[in-house]
TrEMBL record:
Coiled coil: none annotated. GO terms for cellular component: membrane. The keyword Iron does not apply. Residues 2-244 form the ABC transporter domain. This is Phosphonate transport system ATP-binding protein. One of its GO terms (molecular function) is ATP hydrolysis activity. Pfam families: ABC_tran (PF00005). Gene3D superfamilies: P-loop containing nucleotide triphosphate hydrolases. It comes from the Bacteria. NCBIfam families: ABC_phnC (TIGR02315).
């Protein structure tokens, strides 16, 4: 159970995240939506302490994450893997090594990469790649892969951390629809294994299709929190003051994503 209590982050005069409270049971898949600047990335980054909160707390299974220091903080970051819009692979390294990097957080010095990994770790990495149909790419350089393949490599790398939570910040914003689906299927698959997933999405239709729960942010605050069917086109209009089509187009443009597919909008 992840408990977020009145979490707040200010940047100067600006309050990026403003008193957000959420209780997320283990194994849930939560989509976070909102306009550009709503606070989605800041919220996710505070959960693994890439950004420090100004106020509030995060508890994971009763442990106060916001108070962790040193090794305990490094352990938490292992348990709480991040996925980014730009995949963040080391382009000139091969795919297998990129996945094995997921094991490195424990190790202080990064030297002679390949000799540092055990046979068991290499088997784990290959199994993770195989799961996403990427085993045959293991020895290719990362930059020979498509965006969708690279993002699945990033998910495989995250799995090598043996995470309890995956935090994905706009994981499909740079992908075409087909690749976006393979990546969302991969995230949903690992979620079904029991890993909690929090995913920032610019695309409402994807959030509806894949998530158990949608949290909508506006100006740093939670303005909707419920199951996808409850987030009707009417609710979107009430919350954001624009039609769902307008919201979708604006959100896609903000992350440089292709224009949204024709929205299949639930009747209000
Ligand atoms: N490092 C930073 N310094 C100053 N302002 C920031 C910083 N990070 C985010 N912000 C501001 O906080 C607000 C929320 O940003 P962000 O969390 O990136 O929103 P989103 O991911 O929803 O687009 C924005 O107004 C943004 O400009
Ligand atoms: Mg963002």
């Amino acid at each position: 159970m992840l408990e977020i209590e009145r979490l707040t982050r200010r940047f100067g005069e600006k309050t990026a995240v403003d008193g957000v409270s959420l209780s997320i049971p283990a194994g849930q898949m939560v989509g976070v939506i909102g306009r550009s600047g709503a606070g989605k990335s800041t919220l996710l980054r505070m959960l693994n302490r890439l950004t420090e909160p100004s106020a509030g707390r995060v508890l994971f299974d009763g442990t106060d994450i916001t108070a962790l220091r040193g090794q305990a903080l490094r352990d938490w970051r292992m348990r709480c893997a991040m996925i980014f819009q730009q995949f963040n692979l080391v382009q000139r390294l091969d795919v297998l090594t990129n996945v094995l990097v997921g094991r490195l957080n424990r190790r202080p010095v990064l030297t002679s990469l390949l000799r540092m990994f055990t046979a068991q770790e290499r088997a784990m990495a290959l199994a993770a790649l195989d799961r996403f149909d990427l085993a045959e790419t293991a020895l290719q350089r990362a930059d020979t892969l498509s965006g969708g393949q690279q993002q699945r490599v990033a998910i495989a790398r995250a799995l090598l951390q043996e995470p309890r939570i995956i935090l994905a910040d706009e994981p499909i914003a740079s992908l075409d629809p087909r690749n976006a689906r393979t990546v969302m299927d991969a995230l949903r698959g690992v979620n079904r294994d029991g890993i909690t997933v929090l995913v920032n999405l610019h695309d409402l239709a994807t959030a509806r299709d894949y998530c158990d729960r949608i949290v909508a942010l506006n100006a740093g605050r939670v303005v909707f929190d419920g199951p996808p069917p409850a987030l009707t086109a009417q609710r979107i209009r009430e919350i954001y003051g624009v039609t769902e089509e307008e919201f979708a187009e604006e959100a896609a443009a903000a992350v440089g994503a292709p224009p949204p597919r024709h929205p299949a909008i639930a009747a209000a």
